[in-house]
Amino acid sequence: PQGSEKAKTFVHAFLKRSMPKMKAEAIQDMLTRKAVVLEHYPKKKTKQKRKKTKGFTAKQRRELRLFEIEPEQQRYAIFLPLHELWKQYIRDLCHGLKPDAQPHMIQGKLLKADLHGAIVTVTKSKCPSYVGITGIILQEFKHVFKIITKEDKLKVVPKLNNVFSLELDGFISYIYGSKFLLRASERSAKKFKLKGTIDL
């Protein structure tokens, strides 16, 4: 360790270099009265913004054909197990479709339910060629349903101006497509008002 004199000399020399504008008497006064705090301004750390991972755009998804079902997969029999899962899902959602269940309560839950796997029938349409199409819903988009029929044909049926019916355990529900122009994810959060349904 350095001797006290050496330390004293070092401190004086250091302060003279650090504070050249101050007189020796002022420095000595500071040393005898209080401790010297050397100012230090730490550099502010800039927070790195997390980069959000960007997903594919709608155009890129179309180009990559992410949601297209291959022709060899377009078979009704392949999706029957999906329909069985959907039936169990609806029974659990509605706490069992009992005869004494209130229809408006079940209807309200079906409006928000996921319809992938449901068997639907087009019962009414402004375009007669759509009437009678029956099949399992494979994909639901904002404006259309993609349905696989028993004849293994993939049909793209618009929601607008079409009425669909689905039946489960004797309970028949009607979907007015014109009031259903939402994506499945948006529909689950929407509050539907149970009103008298208007015709096409």
Describe this structure in words.
By secondary structure, this protein is an alpha+beta fold. The protein has a domain of 117 residues: SH3 type barrels, CATH 2.30.30. 30% of the residues lie in helices and 19% in strands. It contains 6 helices and 6 strands, in the order H-H-H-H-H-E-E-E-E-E-E-H. It has a 6-stranded antiparallel β-sheet. The longest helix is centred in the N-terminal third of the chain and has 15 residues. It comes from Edolisoma coerulescens. It is found in: Nucleus, Nucleolus. Belongs to the eukaryotic/archaeal RNase P protein component 1 family. One of its GO terms (cellular component) is nucleolus. Keywords: Nucleus, Phosphoprotein, tRNA processing.
Task: Tell me the structural class.
Answer: alpha+beta
- The largest sheet has its strands arranged as 4-3-2-1-5-6
Q: Could you say what the CATH topology of the domain at 73-189 is called?
A: SH3 type barrels
Top CATH class of the domain at 73-189: Mainly Beta
**Biggest β-sheet description:** 6 strands, antiparallel
Q: What is the overall number of helices?
A: 6
Secondary structure: helix percent: 25-40%
Shape descriptor: rod-shaped
In total, how many beta strands? 6
Low-confidence stretches: none
Indicate the CATH architecture of the domain at 73-189.
Answer: Roll
Using the CA coordinates, give the radius of gyration: 37 Å
The overall pLDDT average reads: 81
